[in-house]
Input
Amino acid sequence: MDFSWISDPTALVALATLVVMEVVLGIDNLIFISILTNKLPEHQRSRARRIGIGLALILRLGLLGTIAIIVTLTEPIFTLFGHAFSWRDLILIGGGLFLVWKATKEIHHNVDPTPSDDVFDTAKATMTFGAAITQILLLDLVFSLDSIITAVGMTDVVMIMVIAVVVAVTVMLLAANPLAQFIHNNPTVVMLALGFLLMIGMTLIAEGFGAHVPKGYIYAAMAFSALIEGLNMLSRRAVRRKSAGSAAEPKH
Output
């Protein structure tokens, strides 16, 4: 195992940059896992998150072991309407469509108090542990592929990629339960997170069709939206404190 790159400042900078990028890219995956596992019975949620994130690590490390094949996934396999599609494009489009459908389904379930018997009806079927793991695995594959292709584009040292992936997945593992609990305790955040997933799904579809969307814009929009929601939460908390204080004051 070659660690000669440790003495190379350029390699260390690449490692730090890649770790940050992998952590940021993992946010999408983590939001999806948190929302999905919150639909399970409480005693199954933590285990489902651990399994889902563990699968993400296995997929990423497995893909790193097949870099030669991963690189070929970006080569065109057919052309349609003047655009050359690769296997990566098709995987991103498929994952994006699944994410859009899933987010739309959950939004429909949250805003419709009496769901009807249609394609978005979630009232009849309760999420099972196996179904949750299967859906997590599908999105893990899409996010893992995007993550590894990003890593390959930044460095050709496999050990740097491995370290970045392990660190990112460890951060996901540590943040999973607190994030899921926060989303569960704040219902308005659920809708915001579903909006994020909808936007991420549309971004994956756009990327699959060759329209490059700078990730910085996506995450800046997410951060701004999260900031506004945080201010709303503080405002509601202040109103509740004021109401509680007024109710506690003695009447003359």
